[in-house]
Amino acid sequence: MKHPGNTPWRYALLLLACLFFSCVVMAQDAFVEAELSSQTVALGESVNLQIVATGIDAELNLSELEAVVNVLGRSSSRQVNSFNGTIISKVIWNLEISPRESGQIVLPPVTVGDLATRPLLLQVAEAPTGADRTVYVEASVDNEQPYVQSQVIYTIRVFQRVQFSDASLDYPSAPGITVQQIDEGEQLTENIDGQPYNVFTRRYVLFPQTSGRIVIPPVTLQGAMPGTRSRSTGLFTPRNRFSRQSNPIELDVKPRPDSFTGQWWLPVSSIDLAQQWVTPAEEYFVGRPLTRTITLTANGVGEAQLPEIDPPELATAKIYADASEAQTISVDSGVQATRRFSWAIIPQQAGQLTLPEVTIPWFDVVSGTIQTATLPAQTIEIQAAVDDAAALSNNSTSGDASLDGQTQAQDASNSADGIIAPTVNFGDAAQVSHANAGTGFWKRVALVLGIGWLATVLAWLFHNVLRRRSPKQVPRAQTSSSSQRIPIQIAAVEAAIKENDLAALSRSVSAWGKAAYATASASPGELAKEVASAELSQQLWQLDAALYSPERAADTTAFTGLAKLLRAEKPAPSTLNGENSQNEHALPAL
Length: 590
What we know:
It is built from 10 helices and 30 strands. The protein has 590 residues and is α+β, with helices and mostly antiparallel strands. Strands 11, 12, 14, 15 and 16 form a 5-stranded antiparallel beta sheet that branches. Strands 22, 23, 24, 25 and 26 form a 5-stranded antiparallel beta sheet that branches. A 4-stranded antiparallel beta sheet has the order 1-3-6-5. A hairpin with a 2-residue loop joins β25 (325-331) and β26 (334-347). α6 (482-498) packs antiparallel against α7 (502-517) and α6 (482-498) packs antiparallel against α10. The protein is elongated. It starts with 6 loop residues before the first helix and ends in a 22-residue tail after the last helix. 21% of the residues are buried.
């Protein structure tokens, strides 16, 4: 019996049933599961948690999980497979987690969209101690009660019995201290509790800036070591990250003692104060600069902690100070700082010049006593300014007289040996004639004149023979002559004076000196010793001194006549860059 009125209802019920069963199938196809790479882990180490979402495309929610553990790393991948014509997609998340406390903890569900994983149990053991430790870190200092701003050596030692990778070591830090690493670290092997360890050591130097209690937090070492293979990882061995912390360090920083009254607080283990005179003592003349260098070296501080040494004020000398040079180096005892001070001292009058003592108070952190580094007062003798032209004339005259005496002695020796000298000193012959009047004076004169004439003829013939045999000389116009460069350098001097450029003027004068006197180091001060003109020498000394002056950047007005003096200076031919008597036959420059 048919019931036509019920047919639409049957179709509706059938459609609803199909929809219900299709939803059940879809619900069965979409699911999320979780798996740990290990059920146990030690405190301070990590374990891998893998989340697999099948048939669902949604975001991963870790809010509940992060309330229990630290998520150190996170990565994801997607897989799409086909099975019996059905497309199955998977999203895989790999989480690296580290528990915050020991004991048995419950990992809460992780949700992907509306689906969640089941809770997991993880057993967290206490961090290993003694010989059970595979990796651990220790920190130490050389002094737990330092003085403020003094050096503290902080040492980190990493002990390991297993190989690990991707390691990172924190920098020690704390409020109220400055930190500087003093080495790259060294490795050695030690036997501890019967177990061999590779030990990595790194040192830092700390400078506490305030007195009182300072706590340096633990330094953290992080790395990765091979983990346990799970079903989901297959043949691939995962890496489990770990972290290890050192022990904290507490410093009791002592303040600066009230008994220290120095203007500059310098807490060091040792100090050295030395000086050096660049200019030799025989060149201490009025108007000539003397260079004094003072070196301050201290162990246990950085270069910024070294004081400045101001030049003294002298009534009979001018002093110009260059900028000090400082550096800090690492040594076995920590750090060592050095600062060098260079002064140009220009005496203004002859006589004794006394430089006062230099004193630097410092605090010995080893003995806890106040010390003083001292350079004693020093007195030097300054000679009067030398008239170089007069000195040169006197030296030339005395040299000629000495040469004449040597010539007379040589002539007497040659006569005794039967050798006739090629030249005659008529002044000496007259003296001999006066002393031996009446003993055949004119005969002797005639004999000497005849021999001299004969010697001249022989010398002329010998010279012509040598000239024919010698190779043809290269004309001077074809060579690079130093004398040809002198006018160019003088023109450069004039240009530097016109441009009011003291540094360029010094370089041009040095270039002129190298061309004129073949001097390897032709500074104005060195050239002042070479030139013949006293006025030029004084100008060169003034130029050398002006280079040390703070106002040297724009003051060449005192040297407007320098180019004229250089042009008037006539260096000896033997000094012109190797142009000596060997070139006497060369053609003059055109």
